[in-house]
Amino acid sequence: MIAAAGLALIKLVLGLGVFTALGYLGKFYDKRLAGMLLTFPILNSIGILSGDDPLAVADAVYAVVVLNGLILFFMICFCERLTPMPGASANARLAARVVVWTGVWAICAPLITNFRDSLPSFAGIIALQIILSVVAVIAIWTPPRDTANAGPPRLILSEHLRAMIDLWGNASGYVRMGLFILSFGLLFLAANVFTSKWLGMFSAVPLPGLFAIATLSVMNAQDDFKSMRDTVLIGALSVNLFNWLFAHFLINLPFVGVMHTVAGLIMLVAMMAADAALLFWLTPRISAVFDRLRA
What is d(CA 246, CA 241) in angstroms, rounded to the nearest whole number? Predict the structure, then answer.
């Protein structure tokens, strides 16, 4: 239990960091980049690192990543319809949307795990994700309203940090981070205290993405907010590619015991940094291509 609590603390810190970063990116920087990062593989990669059989853990995660991407995609599309709540406060709407879409995930996730053996292999899942991404781009890509200023702002690091602090360093920001921590704690209890396998699945809920979408849905105009859906399925595709690479690199590390875990953690941090840098570089270029096609 102590080891599980320590791992949960690491996940909480990383998850809170991802949530606050996504909130900033989606509000002030690049909504399509935020959409690409909604399923960023911080939490499931730690699961792969801490599992006894990394390949088996990764294999179990692939289908759940597809589900996570679809849940986040449809949440962006329909959260206003399912939870309009016009008279409620912003934080009340945020909390309600997290609860509703966590419930939707909880209905779908057991079906995924129960029928995992009947689902395609890794190659089949990647092919499915490519098809879903292409269909989504063709069907819903949001043309830029101002093609001359469609790219993200080019700010220096100090300006980014100042804007990040301004966004979260206030009473509303503290409440939202508190709600995230509370939700994480409840999901941790459900996943580790109770014996039900169904409740244990809550450790796989994409909580940072759900909270980021719910937060941005109450901070952004709907037209701006919905542009995040353009890239969320492409992001989920990149997550499964990342998980496959990480699991295979992990089993080939020439260490055992604690050294294997330490080396795996160092490799994970390096791979996530490279992945984030690649997505920051790639997303504006992907967006520019499709913007030209849809303009």
Answer: 9
CA angle 97, 100, 102 (to 5 degrees): 100
Q: What is the pTM of this model?
A: 0.87
**What span, in angstroms and rounded, lies between the C-alpha atoms of 127 and 140?**
20
What domain count does the chain have? 1
- The per-residue DSSP string of 5-50 comes to HHHHHHHHHHHHHHHHHHHHIIIII-HHHHHHHTT-THHHHHHHHH
Q: Compute the distance between CA of residue 264 and CA of residue 163 in angstroms, rounded to an integer.
A: 33
Contacts of 203 (CB under 8 A, 6+ apart): 47, 187, 188, 191, 192
DSSP 83: -
Q: What is the pLDDT along the chain (295 residues), one digit of tens a residue?
A: 455 666 678 778 888 888 898 888 888 778 899 999 999 888 788 878 877 788 988 888 898 899 999 999 999 988 888 888 888 888 899 999 999 998 899 888 888 877 777 888 899 999 999 999 999 988 989 876 554 444 555 557 777 788 888 889 898 889 999 999 988 888 777 666 665 555 555 667 888 899 999 988 888 666 667 888 999 999 999 999 999 999 999 999 998 888 888 899 899 989 999 999 999 999 989 988 888 887 7
Task: Please report where in the chains the tokens 């509000």 appear, as a residue.
Answer: 27
User: Residue 253: which region, alpha, beta or left (left: phi > 0; alpha: psi -120 to 50)?
Assistant: beta
Domain that holds residue 10: 2-294
State both tokens at 198: 């169904």
Distance CA 67, CA 53 (A): 22
Report CA-CA distances (Å) from 222 to 84, 131, 146, 247: 12, 26, 16, 38
